From TrEMBL:
Pfam families: tRNA_edit. It comes from the Bacteria. InterPro entries: YbaK/aa-tRNA-synt-asso_dom_sf (IPR036754), YbaK/aa-tRNA-synth-assoc-dom (IPR007214). One of its GO terms (molecular function) is aminoacyl-tRNA deacylase activity. Gene3D superfamilies: YbaK/aminoacyl-tRNA synthetase-associated domain. This is YbaK/EbsC family protein. CDD domains: ProX_deacylase (cd04333).
Length: 158
């Protein structure tokens, strides 16, 4: 399967295997720029989409894996992360921190570990879909597996 995947998705697939994750990367028929479009293509609830949002937290990357049903409260996240300021990262900042483009940032497969917060709301879904390193790729996982493979901290994001 790897030879048919975009290069970034191959990196993510390898990371998933190394981490003992069970899901296989799926290539979507078209880009899914929003959680709603991803959910429509996958036939799941929008809340089961794990949006990967990279923030600039006092100059360091912070990955927030949030339910597609939520908006992140950046002030709450800043307090939770113990930083002065959290703001949306630029595309360049995201690419440097993750090696992946906005719209396809996976929870794993980055050049270096990225501090990660995982939305507790995702635990309400038996299957959660996360980005696979490219805007056309996703993989199924669970809340517990996301926390485990990212070393993430479960939090409320709104």
């Amino acid at each position: 399967m790897s030879e048919k995947l975009p290069a970034n998705a191959v990196v993510v697939e390898s990371a998933l295997r190394e981490l003992g994750a069970t899901g296989e990367i799926v290539v979507l028929p078209e880009k899914a720029p929003t959680a709603a479009t991803a959910a429509a293509q996958l036939g799941c609830e929008v809340g089961a989409i794990a949006n990967s949002l990279i923030f600039d937290a006092d100059g360091a990357p912070l990955l927030v894996l949030t339910s597609g049903a939520h908006r992140v409260d950046v002030e709450l996240i800043a307090r939770t992360a113990g930083v002065a300021k959290v703001r949306r990262a630029t595309p360049e900042f995201v690419r440097t921190a993750t090696g992946q483009p906005i719209g396809g940032v996976a929870p794993v497969g980055h050049p270096a570990p990225v501090r990660t917060l995982v939305d507790n709301w995702l635990s309400k879904h038996e299957v959660v879909w996360a980005a696979g390193g490219h805007p056309l790729t996703v993989f199924p996982t669970t809340f517990d597996e996301l926390v485990r493979i990212t070393g993430g901290t479960p939090v409320d994001v709104e």
